[in-house]
Design brief:
Mean pLDDT: 89
Strand content: 15-25%
Strand order of the largest sheet: 8-9-10-1-11-19-12
CATH topology of the largest domain: Dipeptide-binding Protein, domain 3
CATH architecture of the largest domain: Roll
Shape: globular
CATH class of the largest domain: Alpha Beta
Largest sheet: 7 strands, mixed
Distance between the termini: 39 Å
Low-confidence stretches: 1-47
Number of strands: 21
Radius of gyration: 23 Å
Amino acid sequence: MKRKLLAVLLLLGLLGAVLCGCGDGSADKTPEGGQTSGSTEPAAQPAADHPNEITVGIAQDLDESLDPHKAVAAGTKEVMFNVFEGLMKPTPEGDLIPAVAEKYEISDDQLTYTFTIRDGITFHNGEPVTAEDVGASLARCKNGGDGILEVEAFSNIRSMETADSRVISITLEEPDSEFLSYLTTAILPADYDGQDTAPVGTGPFRFVSRAAQDNIVLERFAGYWGEPAYLDKVTYKIIENADSILMSLQSGAVDLFAHLTSTQVAQLGDDFNIEEGTMNLVQAMYLNNAEKPFDDVRVRQALCYAVDRQQILDLAFDGYGSLIGSSMYPAFGKYFDDSLTNHYPHDVEKARALLADAGYPDGFAMTITVPSNYQPHIDTAQVIVEQLKEVGVAAEIQLVEWGTWLSDVYAGRQFQATVVGVDASTMTARALLERFTSTAGNNFINYSSAEYDAFFQEAVSAADDAAQTAAYKRAEANLTENAANVYIQDLADLVAVRKGLTGVRFYPIYVLDLSGIRYAD
């Protein structure tokens, strides 16, 4: 009934309108770029009736560069989570555990972190991981440039010293309780320059090949230091056309697809099990605060009152999802402020009054730019369009390809509004909130608030956890009160898994861990 109601709602609103807008890793197999695993450990044996491999569908191609220090798109980081590791890595429970590092110590003054690299750990090209590689990787992300994304938290590094090939000490200028979380940053071989096209890491899978706009192939890395992956091979198949996703699953071309809508799941049939988690994204209608009329806080607040978020969940997602009211999602626990969730109850009259006060008594026209390969965002935008009509705002959807969205909206900031989900690269509040500081290079909504900047700086400089948490919550409240965006939900993550496969694990960040996926037989 909900889906029928949505269909009627959208049909009434869109009639006559033009919608122009949302391995085995043995040494005798050498992948692209001449990589070898340096190990002859036998791969897991496949069952008799099928090869020990799967095809995973993804809704967008990866970034042009596969270098993890250049990754912008959440989808790229989601895939490459299986290829790269940092000194530390997250667990599904949200803890941090040593990865490339075997152990670490923190000095009493909380300034010096000393890491011991795992004995015998190697990169996918067979070269040993050294303290020099660690230092070079962190320095690369501290300095940035040449397409490398600067990790602001690394600006706090005063020095890095290597005692020997396995020990590195990192000394900070001042204590940072979140610093360890940023050491999930990928460790790369210092003398290798092919990361853009043939990436080399230390993870449970190694890169084999890529065909742009078609597929990415990974193989099990038999030389992995930890528990090896079960599958010998994973092929990621890029399916940007939302209509093709179901056909690919039903035809048997794809074995696993994450981030499906409830409608897609309902049409799958009996060949799949559905695993449910959360996407760990802040889905919102993001507003360009530098563009009229969105430079007026009253207009932004009016849009927040005009959008009925519960109706979006009910109509477009069959009730799946968790409502949010700021740039933080529930999996972040202590940082999530549920009191902000209902800061803007649905109130058409208040929305109209705010628009009139801002000089728009008859509303205005606007464009919502949506990546065409993300059906959940398209569905959300379609409901929003109908809701905004109630307050006189004529919104149209502009569907664009993912690459265009990245270049024009995210990098170029040429947009009025967009519906997408923003992820956290690390399990820190800073990872979600730093982008809204006035000078942040990834502040694609052009948010500018001296008060917000002060709250954020207070948080990153806080001497204890309680003070830091409180400052982050003040920053979240600032975003909400100033209606920086129209916050909607943390989307439910519905993952279709072909029957006979098991081992899906959800994390508190946006990743898809394939190391535990296996055939039940």
